Amino acid sequence: MGPLQGLKVLDVSRYIAGPYCAMLLGDLGADVIKVEKLKTGEETREIEPLIGGDSLFFMMFNRNKKSVTLNLRDPRGQEILRELAAEADILVENFRPGVMEKMGCGWETLHELNPRLIMARISGYGHEGPSSDRPCFDAIAQAASGLMSMTGPPDGPPTLMGTTVVDHATALHTVLGILAALQARNTTGRGQLVRATLIDSALSMLMTAIPAYQLLGEEAQRFGNRDRFGAPSNSYVTSEGARVQIVAGGDTRFARFVEATGLSHLEADPRFASNADRRANVDALEEEIEPWMCSRTANEVVEIMAKFSVPCAKVAEIADVIADPQLRHRGQIIEIEHAEAGKIPMHGFVTRLSETDLSVRHPIPTAGQHTAEILSEWIDYDRDQVAALQSDSVV
After folding, report:
1. What does the pLDDT read at residue 357?
2. Distance, CA of 109 to CA of 77 (rounded, Å)
3. Average pLDDT, whole number, for the chain?
4. Which end of the chain is more exposed for a tag (fewer CB within 10 A), N or C?
């Protein structure tokens, strides 16, 4: 039984940020109902590769949910959504601003129907301002926020990160807002509107870029795998061609690094006397380090650095991650059932609680799998009513 047991969530979102947010609520114990398009389900169900006729992409963001299909272009489908919202604690949506209002399901309408409802609205640029009506995805937010300009090799182009970090960050900020709104509701008895945007979430990851530019006139640079604040911190090639990532910036870690490598002459070299000196002379520093790295395997380097408490890891391929004994020990790769595809391996639960831990209570749903069940349990529709709506292509 998770800590959010008993809470009802309507997930009216698509793609990543909204579905991941709702999935996290489901992992925490909430009853999550995913509202999808009639017949085909959410668009991401068609993204390849497909396993058992369903998309692996979709599966990664939709465990611990039940699925209802609704024709939200039909006024009767919109009315059913309002009826479900009247019974819900939380609604998550990420339509373009104005779409929910056109369906008669905007905040004012739903708040009047259900004053305890918490409505989480995820958008690209927000619901107001000159860019609010523009479409936005993770890659667009990375570009518009400056994240791309900070990412990649110094002599290469601005580069997208290897995964949808902005979508994931936005989902986490939305969950944080929802939990805060739930706590406020415990005091006031009233729900409220929670808003999160991709662009704001991206800005939250810029570190010192904004004040450094405004106060010092410094444009954020691309450093590849180097740390922008300390040296030596980079990925180094080892004897078998694998790479290890080491973070040895700062005087204390650098001293341990020197002890680990036996390169004692580095401490006597005035070019490397302080962290600022090492950053200024990082090319020369790495020329001194690279021969030591190239004479040892990645595993040897990792074990030596661990012995001296220097942060270090092999740059893992996905096969290495799957076989990692630490991740296996902590149950961070789990298997989720899918009706057609069988067992699907995926990431586990990041947050763990000692008394009300997270769990898998529902497998990945097929589109519309629970429509009749939810219409009956939530809003008392009988079998004949559901059959009539199905005949009219409303559900």
Report:
1. 87
2. 16
3. 96
4. N
How far is it, in rounded angstroms, from Cα 233 to Cα 83?
Answer: 55
- Strand pairing report for 233-237 and 193-197: unpaired
- In degrees and rounded to multiples of 5, residue 72 shows phi and psi of -80, 0
> Which is nearest to 95 in space by CA: 120, 71, 74?
120
Contact 337, 363 (CB under 8 A): yes
Report d(CA 151, CA 378) in Å as an integer: 47
List where CATH 3.30.1540.10 sits in the chain: 233-315
Q: Looking at the chain, which residues constitute the CATH 3.40.50.10540 domain(s)? A: 8-204+328-391
CA angle 353, 31, 116 (to 5 degrees): 100
CA dist 301 and 294 (Å) reads 10
CA–CA separation, 154 and 4 (whole Å): 46
What's the CATH code, domain 8-204+328-391? 3.40.50.10540
The CATH superfamily assigned to 233-315 is formyl-coa transferase, domain 3 (3.30.1540.10)
> Cβ distance 236 to 300 under 8 Å?
no
- Catalytic site positions: 167
Q: Is residue 347 within 8 Å of 332, Cβ to Cβ? A: yes
DSSP letters for 86-115: HH-SEEEE-PPTTHHHHTT--HHHHHHH-T
Which tens digit of pLDDT belongs to each residue from 87-112?
999 999 999 999 999 999 999 999 99
